[in-house]
Amino acid sequence: MNEKEIAELRRRFRPEKTSITHIRGCCVNENREIVSQFDQSLALLSQEESEKFLSLLRKTLSGGIGKNLVDITFTTQQVADSPEHRLLMALRSSALKDEQAVQTFFQQVIGSLSLEGNYLILLARDAYDVPYRSRDGERQDDASAEVFSYLLCAVCPVKQTKPGLSYHIRENEFCTPAPDWLVSAPELGFLFPAFDERTTNLYNALYYTRDTAENHPEVVDALFRSPIPMPASAQKETFQSLLGDTLGADCSLEVVQAVQEQLCQLIQEHKECRQAEPLTLSKGTVTCVLRSCGVSDRHAESFDGKYDEAFGPDAALSPGNLVDTRQLELRTPDVTIRVSAERGDLVDTRVIDGVKYILIRADEGVQVNGVNVQIS
User: Fold this and answer.
1) Which of 76, 87, 288, 375 is most buried, most CB within 10 Å of its CB?
2) pLDDT over threshold 90, residue 94
3) Considering the entire predicted model, what is its pTM?
4) 183 has which bridge partners?
């Protein structure tokens, strides 16, 4: 799915636009026990309460593609006949009225999820009458292309509020209110089926994780029996380690800067072209970038081999997961320097009298602990 398709679905999560009639859910305690279940009708809620429910679900369609939102792909055999796909289809086709399917789904999430503390599982089903769009992109609300029926799940931590001091105006007194339980933003969730090219794709799901360092692969395995890419934060750390371990003497400040600049340039060009599909890089493209930055063939081949071990030979990575597009960071055991990504030209490395130095050009506006200082 691309950003436009995700945004189109996100706009539905308003009380006046959604066709969600009810939300199934269960509360799970820290011992992985279901302490309560509910089948909540949105029509019986106030507008404020309804908006809060929909807001929690909508958050599972937020974040960056390739970072927080990841495509999950089913094999042809799974779609034809597999327990995991049959369960999702039963939930979808019954509009969450198949009680056995709902209970099986709850138990699969609870049995696989490692999440500290209490949490809430929300499950909703929506039917979207997809408006037709002509070739020129004009939307025609009176002409429908299809009805997109889908599930949306959100798993939200439930945390206890801290005791505080409250003032009651009428009684003119202070008191300590009892702690309460609050539902936090979703930790993970998913959309099934995918909304690819504005139509139903039963071969894909869109998986959401709040933390780019933790994508809960055990839940993906339990629900989809499908592999999930390495978390975005881990991709960046792995890529950085690969550069340092395989480039050897070629791993200079200039080479690392050049790699970052080229990847940032690819990201910028993709934005300017306004292509709908997310930008991904193959192993071959990454290796070509290294060679163009001055890396020798021997070290590029070494990187090529280690890349397969780390990511897999067919892995397509988002360049935004590999580099920081906002800043260049230089770190020693005692000093950390952060420079705007556009001003990497201000930084240089030198060896003076046998001592290694990081040099930063400083013309004006130099401050130390907030004090303007002069360099003479």
Assistant:
1) 87
2) yes
3) 0.84
4) 158
